[in-house]
Amino acid sequence: MRWGLIGASNIASQHMIGAMRATGGEVRSVLSSSADRARDYAAANGIATGYADLAEMLADPDLDAVYISTTNEKHFPQAMAAIAAGKHVLCEKPLAMSVDDAVTMVRAAKDAGLVFATNHHLRNAGSHLAIRDLVASGRIGTVRSVRVFHAVHLPPHLQGWRIDNPAAGGGVIPDITVHDADTVRFHLGEDPVEVVAMTAQSGMGQGVEDSVMSVWSMPSGAQVQAHESFTHRFAGTGIEIHGSEGSIFARNVMTQQPVGEITLVTAAGAEPVSYPTHDLYERAVGLFADAVAGKGYPSADGRDGVASLAVAEAVAEAARTGRRTAVNYGGL
């Protein structure tokens, strides 16, 4: 795989470049809105070329795929340009500022015969793969409810537009709720139907929400309770899945690192659950590259990205209106 980075981002430098190289890929180029930033970022990360013009970058005939990690409002036009140029796309969440735009991106890639994937990292963690296996194998029986707690303290270097710029897609809902929506869908194998929600500005948000609590109904009858925040220093993260025959308690697993503890509790008692500790991003990039080569599928495809955005959009609408809101998946 010969990659181009659309966005000289922290996540690319801290996680994705290493994952691309570890899976045999070459990072050929990086795009930034600033030519100086592109040049400096390329030099710091051993990348041959830095661009400030997207069309020039996409004109490279040796470029196979792009990874998009710009601010959220740029994802749609940049992905559409990459698809038009015949490049495979791995895009950060949320895919776009609206479900309609996200659906347009995914359908355009399909029509062009290109692989399109969403960089939902949590479903690549060994912890979440183990949790999904427990649910799918029936160890906890019929799922009755899920509780997701993903209230963290957003570090200063990641704040910026996330806490004060709604036009760029700021706020905790597009930043974290989308991850939790994907994680719940991954474990339960079904899409939320309706949601209720309330948001707050609890000390960090300026013009955007920095905390949200919501409840989702699932087609099976299970209920999901979710809490996301930018302002909780010591809450810890995790997910609990409760069934008719047992419960799964997973702590500190809503993270980019392969860490955390999982406990399965049934009538036989409590038992720790082991899991592999591979790099989340290497797995995601490897599966994406395999899909481009015609072997299998990305860990999270375009439909997964649309679905997680649809849930987040419904949560935002339910909080805004104070009403129970149906999730609209845009017909995809």
Automatic annotation (TrEMBL):
Question: Matching InterPro entries, A to Z?
Answer: Gfo/Idh/MocA-like_OxRdtase_N, Gfo/Idh/MocA_oxidrdct_glycsds, GFO_IDH_MocA-like_dom, NAD(P)-bd_dom_sf
Q: Which GO terms describe its molecular function?
A: nucleotide binding; oxidoreductase activity
Top-level division of the source organism's lineage? Bacteria
| Residue intervals of the GFO/IDH/MocA-like oxidoreductase domain | 129-248
- Keywords from the UniProt entry: Oxidoreductase
Keyword Transport set for record? no
* UniProt entry tagged with the keyword Oxidoreductase: yes
User: What region holds the Gfo/Idh/MocA-like oxidoreductase N-terminal domain?
Assistant: 1-120
Recorded hits in SUPFAM superfamilies, A to Z, give: Glyceraldehyde-3-phosphate dehydrogenase-like, C-terminal domain, NAD(P)-binding Rossmann-fold domains
| PANTHER family with a match to the protein in the record | BCDNA.GH03377 (PTHR43818)
What is the designated name of this protein? Fructose reductase
Gene source species? Paracoccus zhejiangensis
